[in-house]
Amino acid sequence: MTPEQARRGTQVRVMEHHRVEGRRGLVGTVVGRYGGEEYVAVDVRFADGQLRLFWPRDLEEISAPKTSDVQRARLTGPPDGAAVGRGSC
Hints:
Elements: E1 11-14, E2 27-35, E3 40-46, E4 51-54, E5 59-61, H1 69-76
Antiparallel strand pairs: 1-2, 1-5, 2-3, 3-4
């Protein structure tokens, strides 16, 4: 990831070359950006609430996961005309 790509709200994954093995592959969201034109660092918040500082070169942007039809139905209810219930009696 380039410093220009490191924006708040961007979904990122820690690259496999990161020096801390336990952080490789972790996915989080950029929540802060610091520095100027030459040196930029970003804060990334992970699902467990941890906040870590990274160089953009140690991150790759990922697309946000798509909401599945099942998840969407849970959030919005069944589509019009769909049967509600758990089967026949």
